[in-house]
Design brief:
170 residues, mainly alpha, two-stranded antiparallel ribbon, 4 strands, globular
Length: 170
Amino acid sequence: LQLCSVGELAIATPTLNGDDPSTARERQLRSLLPPNSWLSWYADWTVHTESPLSFHVFSSLCCLGAALGRRVYLRWGFGQLFPNYCAILIGPTGRVMKTSAIDIPTRLIRDSVICPVFADKLTPEFMITALKQSGHQFIPAPEFSVFVNKQKYNDSFVPQLLRLLDCPEV
């Protein structure tokens, strides 16, 4: 499990060739992507969108994790370790276009029928039932507070969700 927060990387970042700091950060991040890789392809594919490259990198890794599903694992001790990738995109509302970065892999997964795509609001019971049927799914949640709401009947949802992030064998 890798849980990553991505937002404004730094307020005071050195510039390259007189670029503004955000352009310099984008170029620095782009230079770290392996050439001829999934990440490089995805970065090229989303280059003309509004979201920052960092959001697209983490969104593309979530897409890749959904494609792997539970078909790939490592033997770990007495069991199996399944890949699980979760990302939380954090940034100022309306400025960094988090939803746009989430919508692109969601459409790709849905159109390619890689795995079921859940709604951003669901009950714990529905999620557990659907998981038993499909084995894995992609859950885009543009607003995390909507996904994990504060209604009383949802008290057990967060502990169940955290347990599922451990990727149990069943």
